[in-house]
Amino acid sequence: MPKPPPSTSRYWKFQRQFARFNKFLFRKTRGRVGGTFLGAPVLLLDHVGRKTGQVRTNPLIYLDDAPRLVVVASKGGTDAHPAWFHNLMAMATTEVELPGGERRRVQPRVADGDERAALWDRLVAIYRPYANYATYTERQIPVIVLEPASP
């Protein structure tokens, strides 16, 4: 069984700092830098903290399933979904920023059944560590479909 990621506060502090730096580079260069992670495409997801009410932005690996976008809620510990997932699912709509500065208004939903299985396989094809991560968590990692929102 693979070793789970470190759960120390220093590790998560580094993760937050890296996400802030990635967001800065992404926006400054319109996705030319920070628009990929280990070869996988990255978008910026805007969401509002449920407890703080603060606007937050997370860089996430995504699958372009036009006109939809697909992301996966992998990081959050081995037994909990990440906070951004809970924040996102509490919102009716939000915005994402794609490389090139394109912004899209989207509404989230969780894929299940055959749709989830098909999308999961495609996500693992673009970012192999998802398959590894799934082997050491008891939870089913959510696959989130970001549908275009009505204007």
UniProtKB/TrEMBL annotation:
Family to which the UniProt record says this protein belongs: Belongs to the F420H(2)-dependent quinone reductase family.
Naturally occurring in which organism (per UniProt): Umezawaea endophytica
Protein name (Swiss-Prot/TrEMBL): Nitroreductase family deazaflavin-dependent oxidoreductase
Pfam families given in the database record: F420H2_quin_red
Reactions catalysed according to its record: oxidized coenzyme F420-(gamma-L-Glu)(n) + a quinol + H(+) = reduced coenzyme F420-(gamma-L-Glu)(n) + a quinone
Top-rank taxon, per record: Bacteria
InterPro entries with a match to the protein in the record: F420H2_quin_Rdtase, Split_barrel_FMN-bd
MF term (GO), any: oxidoreductase activity
GO cellular component annotations of the record: plasma membrane
